[in-house]
Hints:
It is a multi-pass membrane protein. Pfam families: MFS_1 (PF07690). The structure is a single chain. The protein is mainly alpha-helical. It has one domain: MFS general substrate transporter like domains (Growth Hormone, Chain: A, Up-down Bundle). The chain has 18 helices and 2 strands. It has a two-stranded antiparallel sheet with strand order 1-2. The longest helix has about 40 residues, at about 1-45. It is globular and about 60 Å long. The two termini are about 30 Å apart.
Amino acid sequence: MKTSVSGINEGVDSTLASAISKVKRHVLPLFVIMFIVNYIDRVNIGFVRTHMEHDLGIGAAAYGFGAGLFFIGYALFEVPSNMLLQKVGARIWLTRIMLTWGLVAAGMAFIQNETHFYILRFLLGVAEAGFFPGVIYYFTRWLPGAERGKAIAIFLSGSAVASLISGPLSGLLLQINGLGMHGWQWMYFIEGMFSVGLCVFVWFWLDAKPHDAKWLTRAEQDALVSAIDDEQKAREAATPIRPSMAKLLKDRQIILFCLIYFFIQLTIYAATFWLPSIIKKMGEMSDFQVGLFNSIPWLLSIIGMYAFAAFSAKWKHQQAWVATALLIAAAGMFMSTTGGPIFAFVAICFAALGFKSASSLFWPIPQAYLDARIAAAVIALINSVGNLGGFVAPTTFGLLEQHTGSIQGGLYGLAATSIIAAIIVFAARTTPKPAADLAGAEAAPKHA
């Protein structure tokens, strides 16, 4: 009898392992490509700042404010977008997100003044809202908890890959002229329309739930759904009360998660939007050469992300690794203020290794803490608040440069906030919230 039971368990385990492997092969490459395209459309304005200033008269402060407006639209519509994703399904909603952001991104080619720039940057944020937490939520419905951290790390590497290739790609597209359009207009149009084309593939490739996946056998579908359901039942048994969303919004841990991610995003987007300008100060360069130099920090960050992910998987202590990465970012940002443009570039390369690694290492912490019944909405909230750093950083840097001629004060600020985040990450819990702490929450529905 024991042998028979053992054989059954081994069979289930092998079926589940096969299902997990197929899911990763089927969805991860597409999600990485989607994130690459998403990130390029979001940050490509960094490469055309001087061109828009020359052709449209958009100065440093206006550029910084417009760059940041994306994140206001993103933050306002992130949570409702993710709630709609859960209602209509990932296939429909992620396709919609890609279609609308591609059209708006392509529309950036036709802006004629600051007002147009502001409106379309805001609308781009509205269009992209829900993509990132939507993918994270998709993983919670398709992968057991032990597999999600690795999947998220691979997915997040898409932003680093995007940063790696966006420079040379944008530099090449900026050399296109014709049909009465400047190179910067062609860059916006081509990169935006690529997103529109990709959304067609997304529509046919993604499935809403495991039982819809024809590329999984019935046994694999059942094993996958059973493993994910068992995890949720175990969590519900430990926390038999359905968490109240209103109460969780006041939860100290969730506030800490929002604050940590906000500080991480401050550093990421300050570097993203201002690095091409720093590179141009290193010497006379073409747009393509600027793009090549811009790739170097992000190449290092990809190496760092995978190295830190391996270290944290082997030695655990997630908070310690996040803190270490943040301290590396702080050191790099501080050093960037102590020398000329070339030294500043080298220091930011060092910082990029830290802040991109911190971003990917951060997400398993709130995932481990949150009840799956409200995880999608809270992850969207954390992402929305965190991404406000994408508004604060470029807006502040733009004002600093316009009024003082330097962004040095902003770099000091980024070093300080990275250190603060490294300290408070140790107050973040990595274990689920006890039911006793949820007094006043809604009662969970009883199962028949």
